[in-house]
Write a structure and sequence with these properties.
alpha/beta, Rossmann fold, 2 domains, seven-stranded mixed sheet, 15 helices, binds nicotinamide-adenine-dinucleotide
Length: about 375
């Protein structure tokens, strides 16, 4: 039998598989539509299929620059409605998200706050609530609580998501992405990680384990102290940029590395973003800097090399898009980490669908009993 990567992933999402077998009997989403804008790649296919088996009509679009055609075809072939096509154009992507909300789904599975932010502008009565996947989405939705006024459970705020995906899996996959894009050695290289939250900790640890000399820059002095005590170099921002062979941003903030930093870069520096939005490394501003004399685009690698008037070169990976879902053969985070996070998603949507939480649970963490159940189920399957 010839199988493909989607089969490999869905077979190894064992928690989702077990959840789907339960949902096939309990039908928690019977008669409901679930709308989502999420990275359409094989692991999300396993999640959306689980929701579909649970009775949901699924209407989905991708996230910016991360949708994979094989996954779209796979989902469409299983009766899900896929809006739009892969795009890196934020306005076009915005129109697809508008279309999802225009379908007035009963539940929303949001990723980055795109859908609930639209609901806050134009609420509709039939919306029961839903989930939000990310840190960036939570930050965007907290100020909109009174306008949303529905239960929204934030998957990112589960301790399981924090350590399984953000720390361990993002660390591994951003590190894997550096190797996958560049095919270059990490030993002895000076790597600066911007942001020492859950994701940054994993990224810093993976490069350190690969014999790089890792420094950390964080705007929070308490977090910087922790990085220092964890044994990382914690130079001032300017010094960190000047010395780096590789700069990774994982902050959630905009304009972490911009054209203003051009005078500081070491010749040959590689700039990589691991944060959700393509705004941490200002790829456009760097490309348009007056010192850039010529640009080589290695299209099959998704690397742009800018040659500067003073002889230096800088490499920008994936135009500043999240590297682990971009570039050649993007794999995203490990299957097991996503299986855990997506099982939290499925169980939280089930809770909202059956009215198990009220509007006071608007932008709150995953309930502890769901965390405990998912952790127990994972351990049982993996002992
Ligand atoms: N690539 C992936 O697969 C993936 C997965 C999960 C989360 N994310 C994204 O990664 C980003 C970081 O997530 P997190 O959970 O680590 O967030 P976090 O809030 O735990 O940590 C972010 C850290 O960045 C620091 N920071 C903020 N602005 C900064 C700046 N300008 N310079 C230096 N440090 C700065 C903060 O003080 C904080 O310590 C978010 O955008 C999140 O959505 C990506």
């Amino acid at each position: 039998m010839t199988l493909d990567r989607i089969d490999w992933v869905t077979r190894n999402c064992r928690l989702l598989g077990a959840t789907a077998r339960t949902f096939a009997e309990t039908q928690p989403f019977a008669g409901m539509t679930i709308g989502t804008g999420i990275h359409l790649e094989p692991k999300t296919a396993a999640l959306l299929e689980t929701l579909s088996v649970g009775g949901a009509r699924v209407v989905a679009t991708g996230n910016l620059n991360s949708s994979q055609l094989e996954t779209i075809d796979y989902l469409a072939g299983r009766g899900m409605e896929i809006i739009g096509a892969p795009t890196g154009d934020s306005q076009e992507h915005g129109r697809y998200l508008d279309e999802i909300v225009a379908r007035q789904p009963d539940l929303l599975l949001d990723n980055g706050g795109d859908l609930f932010a639209r609901v806050a502008d134009a609420p509709y009565a039939s919306l029961l609530g839903g989930t939000e996947e990310t840190t960036s989405g939570r930050a965007r939705l907290v100020p909109l609580r009174s306008a949303i006024a529905r239960p929204v459970l934030v998957i990112n705020d589960s301790p399981i998501k924090q350590f399984a995906e953000n720390r361990h899996a993002v660390g591994q996959s951003i590190f894997e992405s550096y190797l996958r894009f560049s095919n270059r050695m990490t030993n002895g290289r000076r790597v600066t990680v911007f942001g020492y939250g859950a994701c940054g900790r994993g990224v810093a640890a993976c490069f350190r384990n690969a014999q790089s000399i890792v420094s950390v820059v964080d705007t929070d002095p308490v977090v910087t102290l922790e990085a220092h005590l964890d044994g990382y170099v914690t130079p001032l921002r300017e010094d960190a940029i000047k010395s780096a062979d590789v700069i990774v941003t994982v902050t959630g903030a905009a304009d972490v590395i911009t054209a203003a930093n051009m005078p500081l870069f070491k010749d040959g520096v590689s700039l990589i973003n691991g944060g959700h939005f393509p705004w941490e490394v200002d790829a456009k501003g760097l490309a348009g800097h007056p010192a850039v004399q010529a640009t080589d685009r290695f299209d099959d690698l998704d690397i742009a090399t800018h040659h500067l008037a003073d002889g230096r070169s800088i490499h920008v990976f994936a135009d500043g898009h999240m590297a682990n879902l971009a570039g050649p053969r993007p794999l995203g985070n490990s299957i097991e980490s996503m299986d855990l996070g997506f099982t939290l998603q499925a169980r939280c949507l089930e809770l909202v669908a059956r009215g198990g939480v009220g509007a006071d649970a608007c932008v709150v963490p995953v309930p502890p009993d769901i965390n405990a159940q998912v952790a127990t189920d994972y351990l049982v399957l993996n002992r």
